[in-house]
Amino acid sequence: MLYTIAKDFTFEAAHQLSGLPPDHKCSRLHGHNYRVRLYLRASLLGQVGFVEDFGDLAPFGAWLRANWDHRYLNDVFDGNPTAECLAAHLYTVAADLWPSTIHAVRVYETPDCYAEYKDA
Fold first, then answer.
1. Total domains in the fold of the chain
2. Most buried of 35, 65, 84, 117 (most Cβ within 10 A)?
3. Residues identified as active-site
4. What's the pTM?
């Protein structure tokens, strides 16, 4: 059995995807109100009864604000800034912060469309 917690973070940014036909809407410059859901999990709870304290997840939100919020992602992201690639990158950011409890990162481009990167 595993305990799982999740916390949502938001940022706003623009991007333009390469490798698409010129008439594809995502090949044009556009933006999103991104929502990122961070998932952490553990088989045992800490002494207080947490997987992690929700308040201790603030560094992830700070990283998003400092690096991607109100930015043109093509300028600050190494690679094609698809939701899938962003999720994989954010997983590595989270893994540096919580190496033993990181489980998954979801990146929502719209309220009903997301990409997820998670451990096996």
1. 1
2. 117
3. 26, 70, 109
4. 0.95
